[in-house]
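Our working data are protein records whose layout never changes between entries. Instead of coordinates, the fold is spelled out as a row of discrete tokens. Here is such a record, shown just as it appears in the course material:
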Amino acid sequence: MKIAIIGMGSMGPGMAARLARGGHRVRAYDVATAATERAKAMLPMIENALDGLGIVDQAGKLRFSATLQEAVAGANLVIENVPESVEIKAELYRALDALIAADVLVASDTSGIPITKLQAHISQPERFVGMHWSNPPHIIPMIEVIAGEQTASATVATIQDLIRSLGLLPVTLKRDVPGFVENRVLYALLRECVDLVEQGVIDSEDLDTCVTWGIGYKLSVVGPMRLLDMAGLDVYQSVASFLNAELCNRADVSPIVTAATDQGKLGMKTGNGLFGYSPEDLASLPRERGAKLVAVRRVLEGKA
């Protein structure tokens, strides 16, 4: 399959490399030359992780294009990975309408904008679908598939088949909801975590230790619905009957986050966020975390 990936932010390079490793001819493009150069620089680390996972190279090809027109020429599938703005995405879709045939599938890697809202900005909306990868996309094997109100069942089936052909796991939503499933669960967790730190219950470092070596450790082996059975539904009902009323339900964003962003402290991308990062940290952490994720995945797959 010929696949074009538009947008080389944090997700684009991993998606492109994984699809090429799976035997597809991939063209990658970003309007910013700097983003393209960063993506190229990331490829050795990504390829090393794919080697660590034992993913056989099916002789696909990854090339970077200088223009959008060059990237999408002859493509069977275009995967959009531009910033999380309806306006920016809509502008891209309008450009695609003039460059691709009516039967070319278009998938969005949006983290949570409803697919129904996005497909309203492209012709032949039946060929438009959500394909939400999880970061880092070359390591995490689960991909959410989301149909909008006008998405054809054949479009969904094609994306499901593509994901399975890569040895990955398609998770198909029954309804198109904001945030889909992974991010709704994640953001509910993050809201409670940030609130506990804000209320002075625990500091950030201990919060991370608690989650990583507590529920995070368990959830990597036992999913939340099966965890309910493991703990006992009677126990959950008893605890939830009083604890649910105590959980954070704020609709805005915590001042811990807004104050940091107002100061330009955006996390690893700026070298400072809720934690500080030295240049050495910024160089080593992605590799270290990637290696650990590879090791965990191999254990869960029974390959370690």
In short: The chain has 13 helices and eight strands. The first strand starts at residue 2 and ends at 6. The chain has a mean pLDDT of 97.
